[in-house]
């Protein structure tokens, strides 16, 4: 997806937070939304991820759906789409455990931990 504008202040906050997610871990759109200051909503985080012009430096592939399924990637949804297959492969290569369509719960960074990770990067 090509973006013909610079990221908004909101998108910059989302990308900063996303950059704090370590390899081998994921977070959810909802946990990112809760961890943002002020809190946001999962859909807004998803839209920012979809427009991410800094991938893979800003690792939007590390953000998954609240039910711990892979969710979307590059605007595509569905486990059989090429983009979501790529997301799955990227996560597996980083050491994220995926069983069937679900991310292993121990791989998930929740909102509180995400806030601490971002604070540690400042």
From TrEMBL:
Belongs to the MGMT family. It catalyses: a 4-O-methyl-thymidine in DNA + L-cysteinyl-[protein] = a thymidine in DNA + S-methyl-L-cysteinyl-[protein]; a 6-O-methyl-2'-deoxyguanosine in DNA + L-cysteinyl-[protein] = S-methyl-L-cysteinyl-[protein] + a 2'-deoxyguanosine in DNA. GO terms for molecular function: methylated-DNA-[protein]-cysteine S-methyltransferase activity. Residues 10-96 form the Methylated-DNA-[protein]-cysteine S-methyltransferase DNA binding domain. It comes from Monoraphidium neglectum. GO terms for biological process: DNA repair; methylation. This is Methylated-DNA--protein-cysteine methyltransferase. The keyword Nucleotide-binding does not apply. CDD domains: ATase (cd06445). Keywords: DNA damage, DNA repair, Methyltransferase, Transferase. Its EC number is 2.1.1.63. The keyword DNA repair applies.
